[in-house]
Amino acid sequence: MPTGNLSGLALCRKTLWAVSDREDGTVYRLDTSTPNWQATAVTFKAPPVPPSGLPVRLRMSSWAAAFVRGGDLDFEGISCDARGNQYLVSESHVAVLQIPVSGEPKWLTLDPTLVSQARASHLLLHFNALFEGLTVNLAGDRLWLAAERQQRGLLAVRKRPLSWSCEGRCVLLAEGGAEALPVQIPRARHMPRDFADLAWFDGKLFTLERNAYRICRRDADTAAVERCWSFAAEALLPARRYDAPYGLTEALSVDAEGAWVGTDNNQWARADGERRPVVWRFAAPAGGWSAAP
């Protein structure tokens, strides 16, 4: 991945795929058979993006950021259905691109009230704090989106003949507030609650909560928290720390055996000198992901 900036992971038909928020026309197929994984670029051409419904101020901020750093589409998540169709979420345009197994990429027609309902719930109000992750169920007929922070939230749409509909209510969860960073971080302080990515597995939603260094299982219909697991003890070992004032995990994929968690290190070097994006593999909890507390 020449630009790094790993921003999404998805396990599709036993193959792990990745996306970077600095590359508009590439997804990466990961060869995980060796200790140092190889990323093979698979290119595509996205059609023009549909109007987002965001105010001019946010659209201009995103345009300026893309001009400086690259990545106009700012892909922040990737998911796939059982057929192997891929779905990428564009943060800057609050849009979802489908890359079908056969045929040309296309932008999904999302419910026209999605953005307005989100903003009425105090989501999608700030630059660089828009859609940060997505996931789709295996049937490919239901899609969830994560609003990143200030406030953070979860939204859902369902596939209908002409569009992806909110079925009355788009927003499952909207919440603000802050929480303390893990104690392993020097000079730990409070940071806004956030979502960095989403995964769907066995009928449940899983949220990657970056600043808290945890994965939480949630009800797919209500977004209510059912159980959380911290990975701070492993991710924040002294040699693995970054000199960054916030968490850097950005990508999540969950299967029966465990979770893949990827870092978007933004060119930061770890304490041990590693500058490449890193993907961790955490084993599933005892009793599996659906186990009761």
The helix-strand sequence is EEEEHEEEEHEEEEEEEEEEEHEEE
How many distinct domains? Answer: 1
Number of helices: 3
- Structural class category: mainly beta
* Average pLDDT: 94
Total strand count, please?
22
Q: Please identify the top-level CATH class.
A: Mainly Beta
Unreliable spans are none
Domain Phytase-like: 2-150
InterPro entries: Phytase-like_dom (IPR027372)
Organism: Pseudomonas baltica
Pfam families: Phytase-like
Q: What does the secondary structure layout of this molecule look like, with pairings?
A:
Blueprint: E1 6-12, E2 15-20, E3 26-31, E4 38-43, H1 56-69, E5 75-80, E6 86-90, E7 95-99, E8 106-107, H2 114-120, E9 131-136, E10 142-147, E11 152-159, E12 164-165, E13 171-175, E14 178-180, E15 190-192, E16 197-201, E17 204-209, E18 214-219, E19 225-230, H3 232-235, E20 249-254, E21 258-263, E22 279-283
Antiparallel strand pairs: 1-2, 2-3, 3-4, 5-6, 6-7, 7-8, 9-10, 10-11, 11-12, 11-13, 14-15, 16-17, 17-18, 18-19, 20-21, 21-22
Protein name: Esterase-like activity of phytase family protein
Organism: Pseudomonas baltica
Domain Phytase-like: 2-150
